[in-house]
């Protein structure tokens, strides 16, 4: 990805700006392999939300939205701002939520 593809960042680096809207930036301390796994979980969960809403399956939608929430928190995009957390708190945040996502991933379920 080159610099032109990167979203604009606020001067403090805490947010990105897309189409004039500020969004919390992903925690820059995440190891790239972890960030990639979290993005994979996030996109899979978003697809599951869409499938559940299309199927009018409220239970599946709740489950998928919970997975989206876990991914966003692990990425540092929701919950306590990553810049207000110690390095240990940041690591614990993504490790705990990634473990939950790995355990709950539909492709990890028996059946």
What brief labels describe this structure?
single chain, 111 residues, mainly alpha, 3-stranded antiparallel β-sheet, globular
Summarize the structure.
The protein is mainly alpha-helical and 111 residues long.
Radius of gyration: 15 Å
* Unreliable stretches: none
Class by alpha and beta content = mainly alpha
Helix content: 40-55%
For the record, the count of structural domains works out to 1
Number of separate helices: 3
* Topology pattern, helix = H, strand = E: EEEHHH
The shape is globular
First-residue to last-residue Cα separation = 38 Å
Q: Give the averaged pLDDT, no decimals.
A: 92
Give the total of beta strands.
3
Main β sheet profile: 3 strands, antiparallel
